[in-house]
Amino acid sequence: MKYDVIILTSAYNDLEDAVGYYESKVIGLGKKMEADFWDCLEFIHRRPLTNRKKHKLYRQSMLRKFPYAIVYQVLEEEIIVYRVPHLKMQSKKRYKI
């Protein structure tokens, strides 16, 4: 089944903050983090139901190289990306949509 991927502003803001942080530490590291995000999102797009539900209706897929996750929900024809939280963030805040 084909899904449309919708990335909410909150997820873009999380990603922008993380990329900015890593880029300020080492030049080029932010771009690697962003590439890791897009790779993870591509996996979610191909196999959205692979990750089990972690909190109510939300699923979580971890990035491979960085301690972040993509929090998303699968609807009938859409994948909605809500957040890109750091994994050390408390789960209450991580799933606060």
Distance between the termini: 26 Å
- Nearest-integer average pLDDT: 91
Beta-strand fraction estimate? 15-25%
Report low-confidence residues grouped into runs of 5 or more. Answer: none
Basic shape? globular
Total count of domains: 1
Question: C-alpha Rg, in Å?
Answer: 13 Å
Q: What is the string of helix and strand elements? A: EHHEEEEH
Describe the model.
The chain is an alpha+beta fold and 97 residues long. It has a single domain, classed as RelE-like (YaeB-like fold, 2-Layer Sandwich), CATH 3.30.2310. Helix content is 40%, strand content 25%. It has three helices and five strands. Strands 1-5-4-3-2 form a five-stranded mixed sheet. Helix 1 runs antiparallel to helix 2. It is globular. The mean pLDDT is 91.
Which features characterize this protein?
globular; 3 helices; 97 residues; alpha+beta; YaeB-like fold; 5 strands
Secondary structure layout plus pairing:
Blueprint: E1 4-7, H1 9-25, H2 29-46, E2 53-55, E3 58-62, E4 69-74, E5 78-83, H3 91-94
Parallel strand pairs: 1-5
Antiparallel strand pairs: 2-3, 3-4, 4-5
Question: What does this entry show, briefly?
Answer:
The chain is α+β, with helices and mostly antiparallel strands and 97 residues long.
